Amino acid sequence: MKPIEDRLRETLGLDTGSVGANLIRGAVRQRMRSLGLKRFEDYQKLLEHSRGEWHDLVDSVVVTETWFFRDPEAIAAWARLVREKWLPAHPAARFRLLSVPCSSGEEPFSLVMALLGAGVPADRFQIEASDISLRALARARRGIYGKNSFRGKDLAFRDRYFRPSAEGFVLDRAVRNCVRFYPGNFLSADFPAGEASYDFIFCRNLLIYLDPAMRRKALEKLQRLLTPAGVLFVGPAEKPLALDHGFVMADIPLAFAFRKAGCAVHRQRLDRPASGFRRALSFQPGGRRQPQLQTGGRPLSPPPSRAAPALGTDLETARELADAGYLEEAAGICEAHLRVSRTSAQAYYLLGLVRDARGEPEALDCYRKALYLEPNHYERLLQTALLLQKNGEAGRARVFRDRAQRLRMKR
After folding, report:
1. Where is pLDDT greater, at 306 or 337?
2. Which of 100, 280, 288, 297 has the highest CB neighbour number within 10 Å of its CB?
3. CA distances from 383 to 39, 58, 193, 379 (A)
4. Domains plus CATH for the chain?
């Protein structure tokens, strides 16, 4: 099995510890059974000469778990960024976006629906989407989806952009025509074809499956593909990876968004919708810049100490402060929240993210407590694995990756 694992790692950058060696073995055995092969040596020889069989094996191994409007806060924040900042600054231009890996199309199609719903004309954007899985791309181009692609309570978009059929829900052609799909291995030297740069890149939940060398290569390529003022969106568990490889937070709340270090774009956050919070900046004596929050027109300064009651139980405010880089204030709010509610898995997880970003060893204890309260949380398992791997505890990291993998396979 090792030659196949080595080829997967060399070609896809796949960290077998992250996806689980059992998954790879199971995929190989399944392919052998479908082909009527008994000996592993025969299958290995077939792989060496059959490109079609290699693609079939890759389709069986790569992670294609996705659904429409996954992480809706990130998509909503991005749509506001486009409408309120990018379009006014480029009144005659069309922006380019890359979704990679795009799996079966739910992510890029969600982005299109978010733009159209925000009143952005289709001629103001160009969305490209790529994946190594030919099977997933075929499904994306077909545009017919089952119930598993629709999760959560807010499914108004399905009524607006889909029609039911005997095969599933058929996506409106106007939405499908806004995305160009093409096959490709993001880590290959010839990806993408030609000279390309993008104003936005969604590369979510790829980095966590790569080995360290390929992860570094992927992040370097993302740096090259972004325009000077471009924005990269990653998965929640990948935030520390981006920070460790030359990206800086883009100050877009709830979006896990990053810019290149040294980007000249004014670091001004978007206003949240009326029901949320807005941050203004002021300078305090001594020149230290402090955030101020507003709610209902009444300004609130961040807590002067970790026990301040004004914002002590507001985790959404803590998340906004953390996204803006005000980690000490965010940690204080989380700790105050936990003094009120000792069983808040969300508060422990957010506090863990904050402490992780500050390089504090207590982050691991926060992740453990969050998992104790909610054992089957996929992203928290991955975040714990990443921190353990970073600390040099590869064996323990593998345990948490395996738990996350088993959870994913049950979905």
Report:
1. 337
2. 100
3. 38, 25, 33, 6
4. 2-61 (no CATH), 72-260 (3.40.50.150), 306-410 (1.25.40.10)
